[in-house]
Design a protein that fits this description.
heterodimer, A: 5-stranded mixed beta sheet, 5-stranded mixed beta sheet, 17% strand, B: 295 residues, alpha/beta, 6-stranded mixed beta sheet, 9 helices
Chain lengths: 263, 295
């Protein structure tokens, strides 16, 4: 079983056109010829994930996110790092690790597993979704504080961040994933839940907007899980999906986990 | 913060004396006034940095020809900061961040919006003027945002000579450092940490604002910990996570863009008192926008 064969089956089973010009969904280490002993899905190909995958006998990593700490996995941006860059590369080579990122293809796929996984983990039941794939959930009215507590308990995100009045009464939730975060000024939305969003100088600076809404008594909320927590849940669905058409080798989720803690 | 230094007092006196001979109204005697436009013109001139043609800095809302009753500096001109400014009798707000929730920063959004409308009403009712001072303020040296952050952490004397962004402090654990950052910045839920709690920290690098992976890769190897505003999570926090998990020590503390720039606008208030002595200047920190259920 080669990595090229695995990628070929991913493309064949995707159910959406493959973006041949994607700079994201490419090999980041190794290549199509690498012999695969097992497959680990994960949100980030962190050094820790790579080492745990190797220890578990899985030499192919299928991350949703980056390996070399930037979106293009452009090594020239980070090769000046004297701490770890070289060590990570050497470890990958020494253990014959092949990395193939599935980002754009996962978001093109229906359903998009990143949304499926996050909704499952947060407890946003499909019966609350306004339409399949709308990612908008109308739940029984609650307070932003109670919703945030529930989200934190279910995801285990220690460093989750919330903006808005904890007593605001909310029911209409827009779920986002990673950096694909809805704008809090949508009149049809009370709360956006997602991974990460630029704080200021964006197209819509939701945290400031929500704070002003709170000061004016307009019910709005913003709950950010962090990029890794937001998109990792769906890598379980990804592992199950790949297992369905790659029966020759073990396939499992190796969690990168939340990088942060909070004082 | 309204205490005047001797030098500032002398400047205030000089301005008052120069204005006095032409003022006939005894009630106005000595109370020199200045319009927002004049005040900002003076600031632009005194800033000592070349003014960019394309910039986010400038007037965002209000009538700049109005006389200034008082100046407020802040990292973010939120509704809350505006209310506190009005209470303090100030009508000119100088902010580091956008006022209308985007880089475009316009009081007239494409679609009607209740939050924008209410903010505009408050501005109009209280004759407020908002001027953004971000790109140019951060060009000054020493870096006023790093300087303010270092001061706020209580480490003004721990600063490396010639580099406001580098501190050498009495050794402490990362756990203690994170607690100190949270308490000194009056943070609520905005502080997030990558690192092991028992890691010893002596040298600290400051990266207030929104910063790139290239800046992080250039700084983290040279210090024990970096305290930053905002980064991209697929960049710098993953880099820090890898470094930490490889057992190389090190730590990254994120405080959020706005909170990281609050103290630098306090430095701005101190500087403005020497530039615009006609108006009282007050720093009103916007504070931490974030909270979390467990904090």
């Amino acid at each position: 079983m080669t990595a090229g064969e695995v990628v070929g089956r991913i493309k064949k089973n995707l159910g959406a056109p493959w973006r041949e010009n994607s700079y994201r969904d490419t090999f980041k280490s190794g290549g199509p010829e690498t012999q695969v002993t097992g497959i680990a899905t994960t949100v980030f190909a962190s050094f820790d994930v790579i080492q745990r995958a190797v220890a578990a006998g899985l030499n192919m990593i299928v991350p949703h996110e980056v390996t070399y700490w930037n979106d293009r996995d452009d090594k020239s941006l980070v090769s000046a790092d004297p701490l770890l860059y070289q060590q990570k590369l050497e470890y990958l080579a020494a253990h014959n690790v092949v990395i193939f990122r599935t980002h754009d293809s996962m978001h093109d796929q229906r359903p998009d597993f990143t949304f499926v996984g996050s909704a499952r983990e947060i407890g946003l039941d499909a019966k609350y979704e306004t339409a399949p794939g709308s990612h908008r959930f109308v739940v029984p009215e609650t307070t932003l504080g109670a919703l945030a507590s529930s989200v934190q308990r279910r995801t285990g995100a220690k460093a989750l961040r919330v903006a808005g009045d904890p007593n605001a009464r909310v029911s209409r939730i827009q779920l986002g994933v990673g950096y694909a975060t809805g704008a809090a000024n949508d009149p049809g939305v009370d709360v956006v839940i997602s991974g990460e969003q630029q704080e200021l100088d964006g197209v819509l600076d939701s945290p400031e907007y929500v704070c002003d809404a709170a000061a004016l008594g307009i019910p709005k909320g913003w709950i950010m899980l962090g990029h890794a927590v937001s998109e990792e849940a769906g890598m379980l669905e990804m592992a199950q999906w790949i297992r369905g058409f790659v029966p020759e080798v073990p396939v499992q989720l190796v969690k990168a986990g939340e990088p942060f803690w909070a004082p | 913060m309204t205490r005047l230094s001797r030098r500032e007092f002398v400047r205030l006196g000089t301005a008052g004396a120069a204005a006095a001979p032409w003022i006939l109204d005894p009630a106005a005697l000595g109370a020199a006034t200045i319009s927002a436009l004049e005040a900002i013109g003076r600031i632009q001139k005194a800033a000592g940095v070349p003014w960019n043609a394309q910039t986010v800095d400038g007037f965002k809302v209000g009538d700049p020809s109005r006389p200034v009753t008082g100046i407020v500096t802040t990292s973010l001109a939120t509704v809350d900061v505006m209310r506190r400014a009005v209470k303090a009798g100030a009508n000119l707000i100088i902010t580091a961040g956008p006022t209308f929730y985007s880089r475009a920063d316009t009081p007239a959004p494409p679609a009607p919006d209740p939050v924008v409308a209410a903010k505009n009403e408050f501005v109009a009712a209280n004759h407020l003027i908002v001027w953004r001072f971000s790109e140019h303020w951060r060009l000054r040296r020493p870096d006023p945002f790093a300087q303010g952050l270092g001061d706020a952490l209580g480490w003004a004397r721990a600063r490396t000579k010639g580099d406001a962004a580098r501190l050498t402090v009495p050794a402490l654990t990362l756990e203690a450092l994170a607690a100190r950052v949270k308490s000194r910045l009056d943070a609520r839920g905005g502080v997030r940490v990558v690192g092991r709690q028992q890691t010893r920290v002596r040298t600290i690098g400051l990266l207030p604002g929104t910063r790139s992976i290239q800046e992080m890769v250039a700084l983290l190897p040279r210090v024990d910990a970096v305290i930053a505003g905002e980064i991209r999570e697929w960049e710098s926090s993953e880099y820090a996570r890898d470094v930490v998990n490889a057992g190389l020590g090190k730590a990254l503390i994120l405080v959020g863009r706005s909170l990281s720039e609050d103290a630098g606008m306090g430095v701005c208030a101190d500087w403005l008192r020497t530039i615009v002595p006609e108006a009282p200047v007050r720093w009103l920190p916007a504070g931490d926008p974030y909270w979390r259920p467990t904090a």
